[in-house]
Amino acid sequence: MNSAVPGDNRESSVDGNDEDRERRKFLPWWLWILLAAILAVILIIVAILQPWNTPVVTTTPTPTASSSSSPTPSPSAAPTPTATPKDMGQGTFDSSMIGFLSDTLNSQNTAVLAQSPTFSNPVFVLAANSGLNQNMTPDDAVNAMSPMFTPLDPNPWYLALPDSVLDSYRSGPYGDYFPLGAIVAKSHDGHVFSFIGHDKTITTMFMAASEDLLK
How many helices (H) does the chain have, and how many strands (E)? Predict the structure, then answer.
């Protein structure tokens, strides 16, 4: 009958404990692999849930030169200067013109000025103290004369004005429209015409609703 030796048992127990402690120092290889896999999964989840914030760089587009060049402004036409008797060829009227214009004005039959070749085409018309200052057709010029007449009023016109009256007109603001040789007519209520031209042709007609505008 065998009996265990107490000393031997204690030595075996001590050796066994030492081997267990040595085994605990090293994990099995499969456990390392499992831990690495778990760590990789955690990193992937973190990367998905909290992506890296990459700063966004915005670039300002550089303006490019337009292929079409800026339009070159075209030179504006020089304004046409207001015509004056000095450049309208004031000459000597035919001796019959005074009687013809007297009959025309007193009868108010101004249409004959457009029907006959009395008005040049165009004829320059200017009205004192108004915006009328332009070349017109003979018909339009006749229509522009309408405010100078009172319907059913004979409105006699005087074409033989004294030099003192003509001089007062020439010294006023519209003096250029009363050159020597022009036919000037004044109505009994103060309307004034000045016809400028030559022979039997009127190239410029000046009119004032009141002679007060001429002084």
Answer: 6, 6
How many angstroms separate the CA atoms of 214 and 168, rounded? 8
- Provide the 8-state DSSP code for 85: G
| Domain locations in the chain as residue ranges | 85-214
H or E stretch at 141: helix 138-144
* Half-sphere exposure of residue 154: CA atoms within 13 angstroms, side-chain side: 4
Task: Reply yes or no: is the peptide bond before residue 75 cis, omega within 30 of 0.
Answer: no
pLDDT for position 108: 92
Which pLDDT score is estimated for 83? 56
Whether the predicted pLDDT of 67 surpasses 50: no
Residue 170 to residue 215: CA distance in whole angstroms:
9
What whole-number percentage of the chain has pLDDT above 90? Answer: 52
Helices assigned H by DSSP within 5-96: 6-25, 29-49
| 202 φ, ψ (degrees, to nearest 5) | -100, 120
Question: pLDDT digit string (tens) for 102-144?
Answer: 999 999 999 999 988 899 999 999 999 998 999 999 999 999 9
Let me know: does 192 contact 169? Beta carbons within 8 Å.
yes
Ordered DSSP codes for 110-133: TTHHHHSTTEEEEEEEEETTSS-E
Under CATH, what is the fold of the domain 85-214?
Nuclear Transport Factor 2; Chain: A, (3.10.450)
Q: What is the 3-state secondary structure (H, E, C) of 156-178?
A: CEECCCCHHHHHHHHCCCCHHHC
